[in-house]
Amino acid sequence: MKVSALCSAVWFSLRGVCSTNGEGGPPTFVPVKPGEIAALLRLEVALDLRQRAAWAGMLLYVVSAVYVCYLAVKGGLGLATWNALFWIILLFAAFNALTRSFQREDAGRQLYLYTLVDPRSVILARAIYNAASMVVLSLLSLLVYSLLLGTEVLENADLLQFVLAVVLGGIGFAAVLTLISAIAARAGNGIGLMAILGFPLVLPLLLTVMRASKLALDGVAWSITSTYFGGLVLLDVITITLAWILFPYLWRD
Amino acid sequence: MQRTQKNARIKLRSNDQRRDNEQLFRAMKNWWKFLGIGLLLLASIAALRIPLAPALVHVSPDRIAPGTTDITITGYNTAFTSGALVKLVNEEQQVCATSVSVLDASHLTARFEVPAGMKANLTDVSVDDLIYTGALFTEGLGAGITSAVCPETYPAPASFTFPNRSILYESIRNLHFHVPMWFTMIVLMGISVFQSIKVLGNNSLDNDLAAEMAARIGLVFCVLGLITGALWARATWGAFWTNDVKLNGAAVTGLIYVAYLVLRGSVQDAHKRARLAAIYNIFAFMLLVLFLFVVPRLNAIDSLHPGNGGNSGFNDLDMDNSLRSIFYPAVLGWILVGCWMYDLRVRAARLANNLDR
After folding, report:
1. Which of A92, A95, B3, B294 has the fewest CB atoms within 10 Å of its CB?
2. For residues B223 and B242, what is the distance between their CA atoms, to the nearest angstrom?
3. B263/A188 Cβ within 8 A
4. pTM score, whole prediction
5. Closest CB from B193, B279, B290 relative to A249
6. Number of domains chain B contains
7. Does B149 touch chain A (CB under 8 A)?
8. Within this chain, do residues B76 and B117 fall inside the same structural domain, yes or no?
9. B255–A contact, CB cutoff 8 A
10. In the listed set B138, B161, B196, which residue is the last one of a domain according to the structure?
C-alpha cells in the first residue's frame, strides 16, 4: 500500500509537470528552475527587509519565552530538562515564525506570481528561505537560552554535534511547516489551524532531533550519533520532496 | 392464442428466473460481507472460548532446605490425579516425591526428602509433563547430588489451547481483538490516502467523500485499538499508558486524522475543501509511515511491545500455531467488516447528498 501510494503520487506529479510545461513547446521535465528560485528568494528577502517589525517580533517572542523559563526555573536545570525546554521553546518559535510564510500573501500578489512562475519554484524558494531564517532563529535562541539558563550543561557536550542538531532541526521544522502554512492560509483560518495541523507532523522530527541533541550534550561519539543525523537529513529531504510534489495542487484554485 | 399464452407464461417464468438469478447475483456480490461476519464471529467466539493450556502457577513455600519438606503446588486449568508424578529438577539432577496427596484438580501437596548439596540456586518443579521453571530457591548448595530415577511421564494428549504465559495469562485472548484493530485502521487509512490521490488527479467530490469516510471509520478503529490496548496494558504492564514507540505512533495517528477532520470542517467551498484535505492527507500519511516505521528503528531500544527491543515476537509466542490459526481469521474478519462499515457510510453520505440536491 505504501509503495503503491507513493508511486501514484509520483505518477500524478509527473503528469502535472508535463501538462503545465507542455503548453509552449514539447513537454519537458524541468523539476527545478534555479533562476526562478533565485528571483523568488530575492523577493522574499526584499519583503522581509520591508517588514523588519516581523523579525523583531519573532526575536522578541524567543527572548520573552526564554526569559519566562528563566524566571520559572531559576537555574539548576538537569541536562535532560535543559534539552527538552530548549526544544519546546524552539518548536513554538518555529510555529510563530512560519505561520507568517503564506499568511502575509494577498490575493493580488498570488495571482501575479501564478502567472509568472512555476509553483514548484515558489515552494522550493519558500522552503529554502524559511529554512535559512529558522537556522538563524534557532542559533539566536540557543545563544539567548545558554546566556540566561547557564552553560554548565554544555561543558561535556560535543558542541559541533549540538549545533548541527539545532541546524538540522530548524531546517526540518521549516520543511514541514512551510506546506502546512500554505494549507492553513488557503483554508483561511491561519494560526489556530496551523498549530492543529502542524503539531502531529513535527513529532517524528522533534523526537529524533531531541534524542540527537541529548546524545550530543552527553558528548557521545560520532559513530553512534551519525544514524540520528542521517535520519534527520532523510526526514528533511523526504518532507521537502513531498511538499514539492503536492504544492502545485494547492496553488491552482 | 394458446401459443401466445404459452409464450407469455414462458416469458413470465424466465423473468422470474432472471429475477431470482439477479438476487442470487446480488447476494454473491456481497460474499465478502458474509465472509467478514463469519470470520469475525468464528474468531471472536474461538478467542473467548478456547481454554488456556494447563500450567503450574504457584508453589508454597518458595524455598527448600535439606530435610523433609511438604510443597503445595497450584495449577491452572490442570487435572491433577492421584497418580501424579511430581519431581524436583535441579539442573541435570532430579528428586522424586515420596508421597503425593491431591487436594483437587488444581492443588496438590507433595512430600520430598530434599538432599543437601544441590548445584543450582533455583530448582524447577515438575508435575507430569508440566514444568514450573525456577520455582524454588534452594538452600544448602553443594557440588551436586546423585540423580534419582523417577518413573517416566507421558505427555498429555495434545488439545487445542492458547499458550499460558506468565504476566499475560487469560489476557492473551486480547491479541485477537487489539491487534486486528490496528491492521484495520492502517488498511482504512490506506484507502483514504488512495482516494485522496485520486482527488488530486480528477477533482472528484465523490472520491473526496470516500476519503473522508475511510478516515472517519479508521479513527473509530484507532479509538477501539487504544481502548483495548489501554486495558491490556493495565493488566500486564501496570499502567493504562506507557511511553512506548507504538503508543506514540497511535497517538500521533489519532491526532493527525482528527486534525484532518478539523481542516475539513474549517473550509466552506467543497472543491477547495477536497483539494486541501487531500494534500494534507497525503502529506500526513507519508510522514506517519516514516514515524511508524523509520523513527522506531532509530530509537530501537525502548518498546514494551512484542517483537521490539529484545521482546519475543509472534513466532516465539505461539509455537503450537493455535494463536495464529485464530489470529489471521480475526484480522481478515475485522478488515472486511471495517471495509463494509466504510462502504455503508459512503453510500449513506451519497444518498444524503442526493436528497439535498
Report:
1. B3
2. 16
3. no
4. 0.81
5. B279
6. 2
7. no
8. yes
9. yes
10. B138
Listing DSSP states for B110-162 in one string gives: EEEEEPS-BSSSEEEEEETTEEEEEEEEE-SB-S--PPP-PPP-PPPPP---B
Answer whether residue B275 is part of any domain: yes
Closest CA to B161 of B309, B351, B328, B323: B323
User: Cβ–Cβ of A235/B200 closer than 8 Å?
Assistant: no
Q: Report yes or no on B69 lying in a domain.
A: yes
List chain A residues with CB under 8 Å of B266: 187-189, 193
| In a domain? residue B7 | no
CATH code, B85? 2.60.40
Per-residue confidence in pLDDT tens, chain B, 357 aa: 566 666 666 666 677 777 777 877 777 788 899 999 999 999 999 989 988 888 888 888 888 888 888 999 998 988 888 878 888 888 888 888 888 888 888 899 998 888 888 888 888 888 888 888 888 888 888 887 777 788 777 777 777 888 887 788 888 888 899 999 999 999 999 999 999 999 998 889 999 999 999 999 999 999 999 999 999 999 888 889 988 778 888 888 899 999 999 999 999 899 999 999 999 999 989 888 888 777 777 665 556 676 554 455 555 554 457 788 888 999 999 999 999 999 999 999 999 999 988
Q: Which residues constitute the domain of residue B231?
A: 169-356
Q: Which of A177, A165, A178, A179 is nearest to A233 (CA)?
A: A165
Distance from the Cα of B316 to chain A's closest Cα (Å) equals 27
Q: Give the A:B interface size as CB pairs under 8 Å.
A: 106
Q: Is B270 on the interface with A (CB under 8 A)?
A: no
Cβ separation of A203 and B197 shorter than 8 Å?
no
B223 — contact with chain A (CB < 8 Å)?
no
Residues in chain A with CB shorter than 8 Å from the CB of B290 are 204, 235, 238
CA distance A197 to chain B (A): 5
B84 and B199 housed in the same domain: no
User: Which residues on chain B are in Cβ contact (under 8 Å) with A199?
Assistant: 255, 259
Report yes or no: B111 at the A interface, CB cutoff 8 Å.
Answer: no
Contacts of A93 (CB under 8 A, 6+ apart): A58, A61, A62, A65, A137, A138, A141
- A249 to B275: CB separation less than 8 angstroms, yes or no: yes
Q: How far is B142 from B125, CA to CA, in rounded Å?
A: 19
